[in-house]
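Issue 218. Parser rejects a valid record. Input:
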Amino acid sequence: MPALVPTEYTGKIVWLGRVPDRDASLKSTAMEEVFASFAGVSGEAHAGLTRPSDSRVLSQYPRDTEIRNVRQFSIVSAEDLRAVADAMGLAVVDPTWLGASMVIEGIPDFTYIPPTSRLQSEAGTTLTVDMENLPCHLVSKVIVDETGAGNMPFKQAAKGRRGVTAWVEREGMLRLGDQITLHVPGQRAWQPE
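Output the parser choked on:
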């Protein structure tokens, strides 16, 4: 079996964006297309080949240790956005509020696609999935500022629905409407016992 297996699951890019200045706001701005370089998207606050370690990896490194940047993209599914909006009692959850880079429609159970899966466009641009992107308290503030509130806090509503982070394995353009194919690792799930 090959190390990476193309699946029958394809999605479509229905939204693209970038966070221009994370210090000013977590909100992203919508884009029609982006060039995904090995360092991510130019002008994106999460771009770079490396990044300082943060609370996600404190068990591995002291804070602010320079590490490989596997969080160049924050990708969420359109289906998960609708579920989060329903749980919060909102008409919509705008991807700009999440600081998202991309919204893909059509790949089921998106937040739980396996780490190291590939999301590959028809043109060959390829993103490697790092892992689930856990809900962030900073997003809650943006949503409250934008909507006034919701029936449920964002972190609770988005648990298991926040999408994944990814990094660029093969450079190229990504455009609204591009078809994306999911490739998954060919290995069995880890079973330590």
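Fixed in the parser; the record now loads. The first helix runs from residue 78 to 88.
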